[in-house]
Design goal:
The relative contact order is 0.16. The model is unreliable at 4-23 (pLDDT under 50). Helices cover 31% and strands 14% of the residues. It has two domains: 9-153 and 348-367, Rossmann fold; 157-339, NAD(P)-binding Rossmann-like Domain (Rossmann fold, 3-Layer(aba) Sandwich), CATH 3.40.50. Helix 8 links the parallel strand 6 and strand 7 (227-232). The longest helix is centred in the last third of the chain and has 18 residues, at 350-367. It is of the alpha/beta class. A seven-stranded parallel sheet has the order 8-7-6-9-10-11-12.
Amino acid sequence: MLQSRPWPLILVLSILSLNTPAFGSAPTPEAGILIETLGLSQADTPIREHAGWKPRKVVVMLPATSGIGGTDYETELQNAAGDVELVFDRSGGFVPPAELLVGADAVIGVCTPPLLQNADARLRWLHNYYVGLDHCTGATDTQLKEIVFSNNKRLSGPAIAEHAIAMLLALTHNLPAYSRAQDERRWDRAPSDDVTFGELDGKTLLVVGLGGIGTEIARRAHGLGMRVIATRNSSREGPDYVARVGLADELHALAGEADVIANALPLTEETTGIFNEAFFEAVKPGAIFLSVGRGKSTVTGDLVAALEAGKLYGAGLDVTDPEPLPEDSPLWQLPNVIITPHVSAAGGDSPQRTMVIAVENLRRYVAGEPLLNVVDMDKGY
């Protein structure tokens, strides 16, 4: 059994009763809890009703740098696969060898153009270990019609949200300046003169993209006493701790109210370059900009201009455009900017949750049940 935190027996039993499918085996307690607590959604129709569904061979990628793998994971996958052939890609890369994909009707791993190019005509399900599918390009019209795509949405939300809040607190307390002084072994109290943002309690945070990651950021900001507002593309509905949910076309108006803006958007045609000069002109003067969505949603030059002009108090960036960020980018030199190299989902329990749901989705695929976290490839999320 994949290692996880202990849960009260009564909670486990109640969750299992809510999530037990009409056919096939039940989810593991770990999967049932994640489905309930993170609000994971399942497809409207069972995968067995999808044309061409006939589980025979499943390829599972084990990327070397993702924290995904281990004997327990492989054992749980074997149990979920039953009599279906399970093939592990132990190359450690992000593209499985072409010969492994021959005859495979399902792949659990990372969706990339080479994978799609080498995929067998039988491929009917592709599960992506990550949330973003911006690297999942090059699918033919036939593949988009025949393959069901699923991903890691909501599973990395808690870790990414904590990372965003960590950057926010570091900026408001000018911790990067103290870190630089520590590197030089200087006892320097001068950076305290630049701690002018004030406490977070009572300030307003705007979450742009109230999905899995955005909801987790909102939850934590509310816990710090902040008033939380948000935008989402689908509706005006949100959890109780979000005071107001606006639609995407209200972004600029809401940005004028916010002391902190958190970008948690997926990358689509509509969100590419959405944080541009016009957006930063609409932002409340002295606000903090956090970006843990996708780098290409921000026009880097416009962000730099807003920072250099003093329109923003600071920025915390886990994603940039381009990536890696070039050595000559002005962002490296700005004292009120924190940069991390697209690692906000690392550590914590994210890899554990990823493996639990990969196993659960494999169980559902073999049993013909509705899959979790199915992606609308037209929308990109």
